[in-house]
Please model this.
Amino acid sequence: MSADPLPLQIDVRELARWRDDGLAHAILDVRETWETEICLIPGSLCVPLGLITSSADRIPVDRPVAVACHHGMRSMQAVAWLRRNGYENVTNLAGGVDAWARQIDPSMSTY
Model:
C-alpha cells in the first residue's frame, strides 16, 4: 500500500487482497454482540457503534483499518466520526460482512 490516503470506502475484494498480500491491517466490526456471535470476519476487533466514542483508543493508528458492519451503513457512520476525530487510517467496508460472506467466504453464516 502506498502513502496515499485511504479511500473513504473499499470493497470486500480489496480487503481480501490486503489479507492475501499480508498487508498489515485491522478490521473493526461495529455491529452489536448478538450479530458478531452469528458471523465475524476472523481477527476482527469488535466495538459496537454506540461505544466508538468511548473506545476509540482501542482502534489501531499504525495500519489501515477496514470498518465493517452488516451492510455498510453503521460502519460508514463510524468512519465519518473517526475521520472527523483524526483517524485518517480508516475506511468503510462496502457491503459489510454480508458482502464478505456472499463474495469471499460462502461458508460464513449470514442473517
